[in-house]
Amino acid sequence: PMLVEATLDLLGGLLKPAAKAEARAAHAACFRHVVALAVTSDDAGVLQSAAECLRAFLRSGGVESLAWGVDGTNGEGRGEVLRSYLDAAARLLSPSLEDGASAFAAPLL
C-alpha cells in the first residue's frame, strides 16, 4: 500500500501545476485507475491519496475535464466522469470503512 500511496501522491503533485494539455494526458492514462483504487481499496492511506489525486485531476482539468470521458477520449462524456467522482465520494462515506476515511470525501464534494 505504501508504494501505491506514494505513486498517487506523486501524480497529484505533478497535476497541481499542470496545464490543460498535460492534465488531459494524465487523465487519459490514469483517471480510471485512480477511481478504481478509490472505490475498491480498504487502506486509509490509499483512500486519502486517491481522493487527493482525484481533486488534483479536477482542479487541473477544470470543468472541461468532466467531458473528457474516463479514458480521455470524450467517448463517454460528462456523465461518466462525474459519476466516477461521486462513486469515489460515496465509497469514502461508506459506513464499512474506518471513521477517518469520511474526512477524505470533503474535498471531492
Structure write-up:
The protein is mainly alpha-helical and 109 residues long. The protein contains four helices and no strands. Helix 1 (2-15) packs parallel to helix 3 and helix 2 runs antiparallel to helix 3.
* Residues in β-strands, percent: under 5%
Global mean pLDDT: 90
Q: Output the number of helix runs.
A: 4
Number of strands: 0
Low-confidence stretches: none
Q: Helical proportion?
A: 55-70%
Please compute the radius of gyration using only Cα atoms.
Answer: 13 Å
Distance between the termini: 25 Å
- Tell me the series of helices and strands, N- to C-terminal: HHHH
Structural class: mainly alpha
Major β-sheet annotation: none
The best one-word shape is globular
Primary descriptors:
109 residues, mainly alpha, 4 helices, globular
Layout of helices and strands, plus pairs?
Blueprint: H1 2-15, H2 20-40, H3 44-61, H4 77-92
